[in-house]
Amino acid sequence: MKVLSDTIQLHSKGEGDIIDMTMQLSNIVKESKIINGTLTIFVSGSTAAVTTIEYEPGLVHDFPEMLSRIVPKDIEYEHDNTWHDGNGHSHVRSSLIGPSITIPIIRGKLTLGVWQQVVFLEMDTRSRNRTVILQMIGE
After folding, report:
1. pTM of the model
2. How far apart are the C-alpha atoms of 68 and 13, rounded to whole Å?
3. Helix (H/G/I), strand (E/B), else coil: 124
4. Contact indicator for 68, 125 with CB cutoff of 8 Å
5. Order of strands across the sheet with 117-122?
6. Annotated domain spans of the chain
7. Quick count: other Cβ atoms within 10 Å of Cβ 30?
8. CATH topology assigned to domain 2-138
């Protein structure tokens, strides 16, 4: 069994930016030559998240709108009272979605559904440079 680690560098536009990483991930898995195993995708940072969606214009619009309904910007957050940085909602939103996912690799490919893409979600109020950490385990 082998363990391989890699990273993807991303530059986000700021809050609400959704970046499709599926093709990059698929290429990295292919180059790894792992036939059966898992890929864990983890974003380093407390105001970003990783998940899967159908990456199409409607959902790219709907997903941030859904987060704003569940975790509104315009309420009081103790984080903001402490740090005065205005991104308390960003921290709550990113922890709600989560910083990582794990996807099985079978026959050398990610086992994603036909309409399922892996996306990075920027929750912070400003553009950011982000590191997405990848770890593959398999044979």
Report:
1. 0.96
2. 17
3. coil
4. no
5. 18-20, 117-122, 48-53
6. 2-138
7. 13
8. Jelly Rolls (2.60.120)
